[in-house]
Structures are given as C-alpha cells and as structure tokens.
Amino acid sequence: MNTIEMKHLTKDYGNQRGIFDVTFSVKKGEVMGFLGPNGAGKTTTIRHLLGFSTPNHGTCTINGMDCFHKAKDIHRSLGYLPGEIAFMDDMTGKQFLKFAADLKGMKNKGRMQELMDMFSLDPGGRIKKMSKGMKQKIGIVCAFMDSPDLYILDEPTSGLDPLMQNQFVELILEEKKRGATVLMSSHMFEEVERTCDRTAIIREGRLVAVEDMGTLGKSKQKVFMVTLGSKAEAEAFSREMNGVRQTGENRVTVGVRGELSEFIRCLGKYRVLNLAEQKQTLEDLFLHFYGGDSHE
Amino acid sequence: MNNIFVMPLLKREIKSNYKVFLIIAAVASMYISVMVSMFEPDLGKMLAEFEKAMPGLMSAAGMTNPGTTLQSFLKTYLYGFFMFVLPMIYELFTANKLVAGYVDRGSMASILSAPHSRRKVVRTQGFFLTASVCLMILYITVLGIVCSEMMFPGDLGIAEFLSLNAGLLCLHICISGFFFFMSCICNDTRRSTGIGVGVFLVFYLVQMLSNMGDKLENLKYATIFTLFDGDALLRGESRAIVMSGILLMIGILFFELGKYRFQKRDLPL
C-alpha cells in the first residue's frame, strides 16, 4: 500500500522554476530518499505534501487523503522537519518544545526527553541566539517526539556535525524498524545511501528517476585520486587501469564501478604516496547514470 | 473551547502581546486622566473664542465644537486624534504579528504542521485581535468614567459617553479588520504594515482636510472615518447608530475575508 502518492504534480512559478509532472509514491514502511541539487524543487514538492500549497495540475495524497483539503487529518500522525528552520524567536528552546507538544496535543513527554538525550540537546537558551545545529536538533526532536507513522524531513542533517549525523542515521533506522514511513530530501548522496530503500531523483523541477538503493549503489562510480611516486609511474598506471579520468604530474584520477579488488591489485604494482576518495557531487551522479561515460 | 480555538496558540498570543497592550493602555491612561483634569465648565467659551481666532487649525484636528459638557469636551480633545491613533498602533502591530509575521519568518510551518486546520488557526488569531481590541476600548471607557467621576463627580453624561465609546469600538473593529485582512493576504510584514499604515494615513488626512470645511467638506465622502461622528453619537441620533453599524459590518467583512483568503492561498513556508 502506498502512503504518499503523487500524480503529475505540477506547480509553475514561471521562469522555469517550480515542479513539473512529478509522479512517484512512497510505500508504507519504506524509507524514501529525495535527492536533488539546490533549487531542484524538493522543498516545493514537500510544500505540497504538507498542504501549504495547491498544485496547478495533478494530485498528491497521503493515506488516500488530499494533502491540501485534509491537511488537518494527515497531520495527526506526521512528523515534519522544515528545510529552513524558523521557530518562535522570542521563546527559549524549552518553551518552544512545550508549545509544539501542546499544539500536537501530546500527553506523554518521555520520548521528547529521550530524543534530547540522544542528541545531547540543552534547550535552555533563547532560540534567537542558537546556532544552526542547535535549531536543527530542536527541529528533529519536534518532528520525532510523538512517534508518528509518517515523517517528511527536508534536509534533516544540515547543520549537524558528523557525530550527530550518525546519531540521526541511527534514529531513522530505529524508526524504520518500528514501521514508520519516511520521505527525506537531501542534496548529498551519502546521507541517503545509509538509510533509504529507494530514492527519487529530481532535477530542474522534473523527476529524473526513482531508483532502488541497491542498484544505485552497485552502479555508482567511486572516484579515487591516486598520487604515485613519479610522473612515469603515473603514466604507466593510467595506461594499465580502466576508467582513468585525468592524469596530471604524478596524480591520477580514476573512476571505479562495483568491486575495488581489481583496482587495488593494479595499484599494488606501484609506489603509492596517497590515495583519497573524492566525494561525488549530485551532478556527477547524474552524469554517470544518465548520459556521459556510463560504461567503460 | 478546544474545538473552536487552538488553545496553546491563544495562550502564546496572550503571553507575547500583553506588553504592547499594556504600553498603549498606559499612554492612553495618561492622556485620558490629563484631559479630564483639564476640563473646566467655563472653558468651552474660551475655546470657542480661540477657534474664532484660528478656525482652520483647530478644526483640522477634529477639535470642533467643544461644547460645554464634559463628554463633548472629551469627544473634541480625545476622540478626534488620540483615540484614533493609540489603539490603531496596537492593532497595526498585533494584526501583522498574528498572521503575516509567522508566514514571513516561516514559523507558521510549525503551527500548521500540527493537527489543526488553517481555519481554526486563523480563527484563533482573529479572535485574539478582536477580543483584545474590545478590552482596550472597554478599558478606555471605564477609565474615562472613573477619572471623570473622581475629578468632576456627576458632570459626565454616562449614557452619552457610553454611546460615544460604542461608536469608537465599531471604528476600531473596522480598522483592525482591515489590518487583519492585509496580514492574512501578505507574505511579508513590511508589505502588510506598509499598506495598512498607508491606507490609514490617507483616510485620516482626507478627514482632516474635510474637517477644514468649505469646498473641502465634500471630501468627507472619501474617507471611512466620517462614519464615526462623535457629535451624532453623543446626541444619540439614529444615523449615528446606522453609521456605526456600517463600520462594524465593514470590519467583520474584512475579518471574514482575511480568514477565507488565508485558508485558500498558497503559503511560502
């Protein structure tokens, strides 16, 4: 059964901005990634799911209910983390959490305390004075504190340090075990890779693909920058190795798909000074899956 | 109550707006007590001569025909300007904060992502504004009566004074309704405040001009504030009741229109 269902969702803001004919669904109990570069239309899509906006064409429903007209009923069991965190500036973190809990009509605050401990959040100070990371943590606690069935999270880890990002991944996996459905947007592949079953990829307002995470991982190219002992060695290595992208001085950039053993075996014959994996940007990802040098 | 209003939100609004309310009420208290204390039964004659000397200036500020009774004295010196502007400042500030402020800053998302309909949220905000404006006018009325009775026992025609304040309430429901409407349809407070202030000023200036009489008198048809006629209210004329009724209806209409638009429109959250 599908929890979220979007059909031909279109919202045109003019100047090629907006979302166009977006169709995808999220199954019950599934963790779905929503990848796209900044300005691709992730937040616009989420705006429709929350019922803040009405589409020009198409429909979006959650549990069979229209996202705009039945917003109140949908929000009964929804955890939402906005992409741009904006709380009541005049409140302290503690006051705001209490306010949010009251708004949701929450009686039991046990989970709230658990989450605050999990993210080592001290919500005493005024929100206005808080750092981005602190606000993000408060947003996460707000979204998760009443253990809803569905989460819609807009760039949930932005502003968090790596330790807290790991903590967040743990939290998602925990909620997934509990049976919750999650849609989370991101502009980083790695973040989605660790938690999601499938991912939808959006670019310039149009859905490019909905991929299984397993397939994506397999076909994803890892890019390494190798620094070798000398220029001659670098040249020899780049003749021997498939998928070389760039050679300069004693450095070689190589794209490797699938298993790494062949690459390592080949490297073993040379004097390697340094080996570093390059983080792939989303644009890289698009290039490799949908055009460009897809199969060496 | 929980079915009609979002109670946690209502509580928050009381907490975050009472300071401005108190400040405005304190300033109003000062003006009212000072004005009452300045009343002298013989003063009317003196001011009438004063007006003969500078006819334009006094009437521009709505300070026409001060009369000899305490209520008409207060009407002239308080209800022509201060009782327009002081509650207006509160209404402008609060109305814009209540809806456009949250939309502008994005915190409306945390309110609307909770299980409450937009209708209920905006109804709560509208109710808070209306109730606090009623409280403000009630305070002004009671304070006026108390000050008068303390300083000039028996001089104030209470029935007339109450009728004047009922008219004032209708006027302020109308003004706050307009501000609330702007707050509901605008995405940022700069715009909603700007338009609110602009329209208020234009109407008020037109009223000042029309007060100056002569050919400009016809300008009174170009401002909504003509519908608040202090003299007619004091005399208990039926046209005053009709005009106040119209002000009230316009106010309610703006409130309802604002709520309706807020429920239908796209929010940039």
TrEMBL record, chain A:
Protein's recorded name: ABC transporter ATP-binding protein
ABC transporter domain mapped to chain residues: 4-229
Organism: Anaerostipes hominis
Superkingdom in the source lineage: Bacteria
A Pfam family that the UniProt record links to this protein: ABC_tran
GO molecular function: ATP binding
UniProt keyword annotations, A-Z: ATP-binding, Nucleotide-binding, Transport
Listed PANTHER family: ABC TRANSPORTER ATP-BINDING PROTEIN ALBC-RELATED
Entry keyword ATP-binding: yes
Lineage start: Bacteria, Bacillati, Bacillota, Clostridia, Lachnospirales
Keyword Iron: no
SMART domains hit by this protein: AAA
UniProtKB/TrEMBL annotation, chain B:
UniProt signal peptide: none
Alphabetized UniProt keyword annotations: Membrane, Transmembrane, Transmembrane helix
A Pfam family this chain is assigned to: ABC2_membrane_2
Transmembrane segments: 20-39, 76-93, 126-146, 158-181, 193-210, 240-258
Matches recorded under PANTHER family: BACITRACIN TRANSPORT PERMEASE PROTEIN BCRB (PTHR37305:SF2), INTEGRAL MEMBRANE PROTEIN-RELATED (PTHR37305)
UniProt name for this protein: ABC transporter permease subunit
